[in-house]
Amino acid sequence: MRIVRSAGRRKPAWLKCTLLLLAGLASALHAQETGKRVALVIGNDAYSISPLKNAINDARAMDQALKSAGFQTILLENARKADMDRVIGEFLDKLGPDDTALFFYAGHGVQIENENFLVPVDFPQVATISAAKFACMSVAQIFDELKRKRAKRNIVILDACRSNPVATKYSLEAGLAKPQDAPKEVFVAFSTGPGQTAADNPNGRNSWFTEALADYISQAGLTVEINEMFTRVKKRVSDATEGRQTPWTTSNLTASFYFHQPLNADAENDSTLTQKWMADVRVREQREEWSEAIDLVNQVLQKHPGGAIEELAGKRMPYLTARKLALTRFQAGDYAAAASAYEQALKLDPFAADAALQGVNSYLLQDRLPEAIALLKTMRLRGTSDAVQTAVQMLQQLAAVSPEAAKEAKASPPQPPPIEELLSDTHFGVPDWDAGHRHLQTASVNITRWTGDLKMEVPMPVLLAAAITAPPPAAADSTAQASATALPDQSASAQAATVSNAIFHVEVVPTAETRNLRLRNDDSGEFGYVQFDGPGGETPVVFEGQQLVLPAKLKLPAGKYEIRTVDQGKVVSEQDLEVAPLSMHTIQVKRP
Amino acid sequence: MRYLALTLLFAFSASAANWTDRKEYDLVLNIRAASSPQTRIDLLDQWKSAYPKSEFAPVRLELYLSAYQELGDSPRTFGVASELLAAQPDSLVGAYWFTLLLPEEKAASPGQLALGEKAAGRLLAGGGAPGGVESIAHRTLGWIHWQRSEYTPAEEEFQKCLQLDPTATEISAWLGTVLGLEQQPGKRVPALWQLARAAAYRDSGALSDGMRRQYGEVLERLYTSYHGDAGGLDQLRSAAAAAPFPPAGFDIESAAAAALRKQDEALSSINPQLAAWVRIRQALEAADGDQYFAGTIHNNPLPKLKGTLIQAEPKGKPDELTIGLIDPARAEIVVKLVTAFPNDADPGTVLEFEGIADAVSRNPFALTVLSDPSKISGWPAAPPPRKASHK
Asked: What is the DSSP string of A431-484?
C-alpha cells in the first residue's frame, strides 16, 4: 500500500514508527494469466512387445479435453523416436514467455538409473542399458528444453507407469522415478506414485487416470485450480482401483492455474465456485486489493449461491467497502474521512487489527490522540500477541504526550474475547447444509463393483425348450432321409422353432386349410415333391420339425403351403405353393 | 426447533470454555484469517499439537471438519465426523456429515453401518430441517440396507429419496443397481429404467458426463443382454430422462420372452394341443403357480390333450394312467378314471384325453386329472371274449 502524506506537515517520531509498521502491509499484485496455451499430446500403443490398448484412446481423449480448455494441441499417435524428437521441437517452437506449456504422454515409460524415459513404438532390441537409454526419449531432456524456453508455466503429465517390456528386459525398477532437476514453474503428474505401476484398465477404453483427468478437464463448469483438480483425479482413480493406484503430483507453480478460468462468470455453473471466490476474497484482503475483493464478493452475490456463502458475502461487502473508502480517503490526504471509514470497518470486523492500526495512523496524522489511543486499546483487546505488543509500544511512545496512553501501556493485558465472538461466521453445532448439498452435487460414489456384476439375461424356460425338442409321442417315420423326408409327426415338427431366427433359413408352412385337412384325414397318402435349390452349405429348410440343408427335396402332403425365407428374425419373402398329388416343384432360394 | 435447541446447548458449552493463554487465541485468530482450507488445517494441527487438551477441542473438531470439507477431502471429513460422534453422540454436525459421507466409504464396517443408521435416524427425527436433509437420510439408509444385501428396504429408501427429489439421478443409478441385484423377473425392467435415467437425464441434478457415460455403458450391456439387441434403447433413454419412475404397465420384452412368444406361436400352429399343455404347465410351475391352480385350473375341465401312456395300473382293469406329453418317457399327468378300462394298453400308446384338474404336485411335477374312459381316445379295444370250449 502506498502511504500519502499531506505536504508541509511535521512528522512526529511516533508517526515514523507507525508508518514503518504500515509499510510492512504492502502487498503484491496478482498476476493475471496472459499468453497462449500449447499442448503436445503423445499416445503409444503399437509396441512390438507388450502392446497397449488404451494409450491412443487416452491421447485422443486428452487432445479433445485440452482443446475444450483452450489449448492449441499437437497430437501424435504411435510415435517413433524420430517422430518424438521432431514433434517436441515443433512444440517448443510454439512456446513464448507468457505461454502455458502442457506435455502429455500415454504409453510405456521406464526409469533407468533414477531418470525417466518414454519408450517410442520402434524401441529396438538393444543389448545394453546405455543403448536402451538412447533409444528412448529422456524426460530430463524435455525438462531441459522447457527450462530453456522459459514458458510462463509448464505442466507435464505422464500416464506411463504401466509395467512394460523395457523394464522387464533390463530388470529395471518398475514405474517412474521422482523427477529430478525440473524447471521452475512446473507441475508434474504421474498416473501413479513414483516406483509404482499403473493399470491400463483392460476392460475400459481409457486408463483410469486419463479417463478421470480428461473428464474433469472437459467440464467447462469445473473451475477448480489445477491442484484441486488433481486431488479429485486422485480420489476417483483411487476409488476406481480400490486403492491400488493413486496418481502423484508435484508442483512448484507460484500462481494458480485453471483449465477453466473461474472469473469467467457467465460460463460458470460449478457450485464450489462461489466458495473459491470467497477464499480469493481473503487473499485480496491480505493484499489490501479492496476493489478486486469487492468485485469478487459482487460476483458471489450475483450468483445467489444461498446459504452460508451468500450470508458471508453479504456481511463482508460493507467491511470491504469501508476499507476501500478508508484507503482512498487516506491516499487523498483526507485523514478525517479515512479515520471514520476505518472506525466503520472496525465495527464491521472488530478483529481487523490492521484497520485499527491504520485508523490509529489516520488519527495521529490529525493529532487526535484520544481516538488513536482508543483504537490502540481495541488492538490490545482483540489483536494477536504481536498486535498487542505493537499497540503497547505505540502507547509507550505516546505516553510522553498522553497520560492516558501511559496508563494504558502499564495496565495488564485484557483477556481475549470468547471464541464465539472470534468466529462469529461459524455456526457451531449446526451443519453447513449448503456445503453438504454442494458436495452431493459434485461428488459421486463409485459403484462399479456392483454394476460390473449385474446380469439381466433371462434364461429360456426349460419347459418350452424341452417341448420344442421333444421326440414325438408317436414314432416318427424312420424313412426320413437327407434328400427327402416323409411326413413328420406334429411334435417332431415343433423342432422348426429350434432354428434360430437369426439364421437365414426357409420355412415351409402349410396353410390352415391344409393343416385342418390333414388333421381330418391323416392317412390320405397323397404327396407331391418340392426341390429347393440355392446357396448351398448351411441354409436350412424347415418343415414341421424336420430340418434339411440346401439343396433339398421335400415330400409334402398335397395341399397349399407358404414358402417363407427368414433372415434376422424377419420374413423377407413369401411364396404361395400348391402341391398337387405326385407333382414336382422347384424353388430357387435367394439370399436377400 | 430441535436443531435450535441443540445449537443453543452447544453455544452454552462453548462459552464456558476458556483460552489456555493468549498464544492459543493467536492461533485461532490466524485460523480465522486463513484464506485456504489447507492453511486452516495446518494451523489447526498447530493448535492441536500445542494445546491438545484445549477446552475448545469440540470446536476445533468442527473447524477441522469444515476445512476438510472445503478441501474436498471426504475421507478425512468423514473421519472427523466419526470423531465428533464419538466425542459428542448428540452432535448434529457429526450426524449430518457421517450420514452424508458414509456411502463414500469403500468398505464400511458393520459398526459404521449401525452408527450411520442411527445418525440418519436422528436427521429424520429432527423436524424443521432444511430441504434435502430428509433425502440425504433416506439415501444413506438405502445404501446401508444395500450393503447388508437387504434389497427390498434399500429399494424403499431409494424410492422415498426419488419421491423427495426426482432429479437425484445418482439415486436412480443406485436404485437401478439394487433392483438388478435382486435378480427377480419383475424387477429387471424397472432396473433398466433407473439406469437409463441415470445415463440420460441431463438437466439440473444430472450426473457428470463421465458418470453418465459409465452408466450408459452399463445400461447398454444390460439392455442388450436382456432384450437381445439395442432396439428400443434410445426410446427408453428418452422416456427415462423425462420421468423418475416408469409409467404403470411399462414393459420391455426380454429376448427370452420374445423367443418364447415366437416359439409358442410356432408350436401353436403345428401342435396346438402340446402348446396348450406347455402354457398350462408353465403357469403351474411359475412362482404364482398355486394361485393359478386354485383360481383357474382346479375342478375345471382341461382342453383336450395328447400324450403317451407310460404306465396303467392296476393291470387288467387299469383306472390310473400315467401319461407323458412333452417327453413320452417322463410322467406329467396322472389320469384317475371313474371307471376302469376293461383291458390293458401297451406303454407308448398315444392317447387323446379330456378331464377335470384335481391336484398338482411340483416335485416331481404331476397334474392329477379325473376322467372317464369315454373321454379318452386311442385306447385299444378290448379283445373279444374267448368262446367256451366244447368237449
From this structure: --HHHHHHHHHH-----HHHHTT---PPPPPHHHHHHHHPPPSSPPPTT--SS-
Question: Which residues from A are below 8 Å from B188, CB to CB?
Answer: 456, 458
What total of structural domains would you count in chain A?
Answer: 3
The partner residues of B244 in beta bridges, in order of sequence, read none
HEC states along A234-273?
HHHHHHHCCCCCCCEEEECCCCCCECCCCCCHHHCCCCCH
* Contact assessment for residue B328 and residue A473, using Cβ atoms and an 8 Å cutoff: yes
Phi, psi of A506, deg, nearest 5? -115, 135
Q: Do the Cβ atoms of A491 and B274 come closer than 8 Å?
A: yes
Claim to verify: residue A66 and residue A153 sit in the same structural domain: yes
- Supply the range of the domain harboring residue B156: 2-242
Residue B196: name the closest of B164, B172, B161 by CA: B172
The answer to whether the Cβ–Cβ distance between A436 and B136 falls below 8 Å is yes
B65 touches A423 (CB < 8 A): no
Which residues of chain A does B255 touch, with a Cβ-Cβ cutoff of 8 Å? 457-458
The single-letter DSSP state of residue B208 is: P
Would you write out chain A's pLDDT as a tens digit for each of its 592 residues? 222 233 333 444 444 443 333 333 322 222 335 678 999 999 999 988 888 888 999 999 999 889 888 899 999 999 999 999 999 989 998 888 888 999 999 998 888 877 888 999 988 877 777 888 888 898 888 888 888 878 889 999 999 876 666 666 666 666 787 777 777 789 999 998 887 777 666 677 788 899 899 988 877 656 788 988 999 899 888 888 888 888 999 888 888 888 887 654 444 445 467 777 787 788 778 778 898 889 889 988 888 877 667 888 998 999 999 999 999 999 999 999 999 999 999 999 999 999 999 999 999 999 999 999 999 999 999 998 889 999 999 999 999 999 999 999 999 888 899 998 888 878 888 898 888 888 888 777 888 888 888 988 876 554 444 454 444 444 333 333 333 332 333 333 333 333 444 457 788 887 767 665 554 444 456 778 888 887 655 566 777 655 566 667 787 888 888 888 877 667 888 889 988 887 888 888 877 6
Extended strands (E) in A29-149: 37-43, 71-77, 100-106, 109-112, 115-118, 137-138
Chain A nearest C-alpha distance from B390 (Å): 42
Distance to chain A for B116, nearest Cα, Å: 16
Query: What is the ipTM, given to two decimal places?
Result: 0.75
Query: Does B29 contact A432 at a Cβ distance shorter than 8 Å?
Result: no
What are residue B140's phi and psi, to 5 degrees?
-70, -40
DSSP character at residue B294 = I
Cell (9 digits) for A290? 479492496
Q: What is the DSSP letter of A534?
A: S
Number of H helices, E strands in chain A: 22, 17
Rounded Cα gap, residues A547 and A537, in angstroms: 13
- Asked if the structure places residue A269 within a domain, the reply is no
Question: Could you tell me the CA-to-CA distances from B315 to B320, B325, B342 in Å, in that order?
Answer: 10, 22, 10
- Cα separation of the two ends of chain A: 85
Asked if residue A240 belongs to a domain, the reply is yes
**What is the H or E stretch that residue B172 is in?**
helix B169-181
Exposed e or buried b per residue across A178-216, where buried means at least 16 C-beta atoms within 10 angstroms of its C-beta = ebeebbebbbbbbbbbbebbbbbbeebebbbbbbbbbbb
In CATH, what number is assigned to the domain containing residue B298? 2.40.50.140
Judge: B33–A282 Cβ closer than 8 Å, yes or no.
Answer: yes
B138 touches B158 (CB < 8 A): yes
Q: Chains A, B: CB contacts under 8 A, how many?
A: 240
pTM given for the model: 0.53
Residues A497, A550, single domain; the answer is yes
Question: Cell digits for B132?
Answer: 434435502
Q: Do the domain assignments include residue A483?
A: yes
